[in-house]
Design brief:
Length: 168
């Protein structure tokens, strides 16, 4: 038996109580560990073999969303760390409850909050439509959130501020 190299994508399930302590690098990190399998540890023929593991679709989506937020933040002149932290605190970096069927995530405390940045329909649907953003679409939700942050700051996310406030 030899060494096995395990590569895994971390998957966070945040709560407001966890806050920024785990947000320093929201991007899914690749974690590599060398595990010695059972057998003779003194074996001179230990091989550095690697097992291949498939990446869960939710992990791929998590990485993709995080990168989209970074890209859009940079386009809009918004701090990418702050934008990623807000998205993470609001929705655990999820836009859809069911991404295959495009069922948009809704708020637990307020079902009028939708998507990645939990944009409230009551207060923002008309304005977002007037500006040409579809808050039910991932890119539209991100773009409208970036518009809000660049024009009005973070006041629309004050309810989750305890989670992301130390990122500023």
């Amino acid at each position: 038996m030899g060494l096995i190299s395990v590569v895994a994508l971390t998957n966070f399930s945040p709560t407001i109580a966890q806050g920024p302590a785990i947000i320093d690098d929201i991007n899914s990190e690749i974690v590599e560990e060398n595990l010695i399998t059972e057998g003779n540890k003194d074996d001179k023929n230990l091989s550095n073999s690697s097992e291949t593991f498939s990446v869960d679709e939710n992990d791929k989506e998590f990485c993709s969303i995080s990168q989209r937020v970074i890209d859009k933040s940079n386009e809009w002149g918004v701090d990418p760390k702050l934008a990623k932290a807000i998205a993470f605190c609001e929705s655990s970096n999820r836009h859809y409850v069911d991404s295959q069927n495009k069922i948009v995530l809704r708020g637990v405390k307020n079902s009028s909050d939708v998507g990645l940045f939990q944009i409230n329909e009551k207060y923002h649907l008309k304005t977002s439509k007037d500006l040409g953003y579809n808050i039910y679409d991932l890119d539209g939700n991100i773009d409208y959130a970036m518009w809000l942050m660049s024009n009005e700051g973070t006041r629309h996310w004050r309810h989750s501020q305890k989670c992301w406030q130390d990122i500023k």
